[in-house]
Design brief:
alpha+beta; 3 domains; Immunoglobulin-like
Amino acid sequence: MPFVYVINAQTGQGQMSDGNGKFTIIAGEKDSIIFSFVGYVRLKIAASKLYKGIYKECKVIMTETAYKLNQVVVSDFKLKPYEKDYMKRVIKNSKTTTINAIQSPISALYMQFSQKGREQRKLAAIFEEIFIQEEVAKKFNAETLRKLTGDETIDFERFRKYCFYLSNDYIITHDGYELYSRVMDCYYRWKEEKR
C-alpha cells in the first residue's frame, strides 16, 4: 500500500512507503517497527521477524478495520510529534534550493525530474495543506462558530462554502475582532437568506 507510515519505535525515525508500497528502514534486531495507515489496524512488529538479510524483501500484510459508525462531526485532529517531524522533513527535502543545485547539480536534477522527486513534491503539498488546515482549525472550527453565533444547528461546512471570503489565508492572518466580526457579518447574511 502506498503512503503507510513505517516508524522505528525505538528511534522515532522512519518514512512513508512509496507509491508502490515499498519502503526501507534502518533498525537493530531488538527494535520494533510500527506500521500505521488510516482505516487499517496499526501493527507493531519486531525487526528481527522482518529481517531477511541484506537487500532481501519481506511482505507486511495489514488488516483493514471494520467499524460501523454513526454520523461523526470532526472538529479537530491531532498529529503525533514524530508524524509532524516527518512531514516537515518531507516538505524541506522537496524544496530544491539554489545552494543544493550548485553543490550537487545531478542530485538536484534527479529530484526535479524523477518520479521519486514528483512523488515527494506531491506528498509535500499534501502535508503543507494538512498544516494549513491545522492552523485554521485552531482559530476557526465548528465549535467556535456555534459558540460565537449561539446557533447549535448550523452546518459548518455549508457555512464555510457560503462565506467564500473567509479563506484559509484570511483566517490564518487575522485574529480576534477582525476575524470574528467578519464571521458574524456573514452569519447575519446567512440568516437573512434563511439558509
